[in-house]
Structure formats: structure tokens, C-alpha cells
Amino acid sequence: MERSEKREFVESLATIFAETSFVLVARNSGLTVADVSELRRKMRAAGASYKVAKNRLATRALEGTRFQGISPLLKGPTALAWSTDPVAVAKTAVEFAKTNDKFVVLGGALGTQTLNADGVKALAELPSLETLRAQLLGLIQTPATRIAGVLQAPGGQVARVLAAYAKKDAA
């Protein structure tokens, strides 16, 4: 890489780090081209990006960003994955690491919080953003149906009491 190419690469990574909410660092030593292609396809399907970067250039791109805490993880053959949905990236990486022992999750950063491998695995166990939205919508809708049921109940009870009195008087 020429100096200008390196400078452009660092600037593009810095722009990515400014726009994203989660960055994952993984060791990718010994992965075949087919494995990397499968991982990239899975990451893309989850709305994430995956890139193998020179550690020194990635460290330079991390300087001055909120993800500086992951710089010590950038040793050896590493790759970066990022997304605005942190759970999607973590789930995809952890699931791929379960099936491929040459891919190891080292850690990551969620905002200014640096996570180790266990933290990323815990993040992967959380429900996805879409699931959380559906659960929240269900919680919002449930009280409305309960309120409607409660408001209808007294009227029904009054009607049943009046009907009972009417039957009693008729008898």
C-alpha cells in the first residue's frame, strides 16, 4: 500500500468508527477463503460489516474515537466487524465461532465501554432489536386491551344484576 492509500484507509475506518455503535475484534488465523466468504455473507445478512485490516492502520483509525479501548486487542491476525445493531454483530460472530474453531472472538467496544470475549457472548444472548421492538409494542398494546376490558366489565355486571332482578320480579 502506498502512503496515500494508507491515509485514505485510515480516514475511511475513522469515519466508520464515528458512525457505528459497536466494533468487534476477532482473531481469524487459518480461515479459508470459503470460511471468510461465508462469514462475510452472514455478517451482511445481519446488517454488519466485516473487514481484515492491518493492526497498525486500525490503531491509527481508532485514535480519538470512543473505541480506543480495543487497541490492545489488535495483535496478530485480527479482523474487525461493526454495525449500528450491536446484538446482530455479536450473535453472528459468536455463532460462527461455535462452528469454526479458527475464528475466535477477542472482544469489542460498545460505545466507550470495552468488552472482553465474555461480554460479547453475553451481548449475543440478548434479543435482537426487532424482537425488542415487538416485545415493547406488545407491552404498550396490552394495557389498552386490559383497560377496554375493565371499562366494559362494570356495565356487563350491572346488566346481569338488572336481568336477575327482572327474572325475580317476573317469578
Notes on the structure:
The chain is of the alpha+beta class and 171 residues long. The protein contains 6 helices and 5 strands. A hairpin with a 2-residue loop joins β4 (104-110) and β5 (113-116). It starts with a helix and ends with a helix. The mean pLDDT is 84.
Notable features of this structure?
171 residues; alpha+beta; 5 strands
Give the SSE order as H and E letters: HEHEHEHEEHH
* Shape assignment: elongated
Q: How many strand units?
A: 5
Mean pLDDT across the residues is 84
Determine the N-to-C terminus distance: 101 Å
Uncertain runs with pLDDT below 50, 5 residues or more? none
Rg calc: 27 Å
**Order of strands across the main sheet:** 2-3-1-4-5
Strand content: 15-25%
In short:
The chain is α+β, with helices and mostly antiparallel strands and 171 residues long. It is built from six helices and five strands.
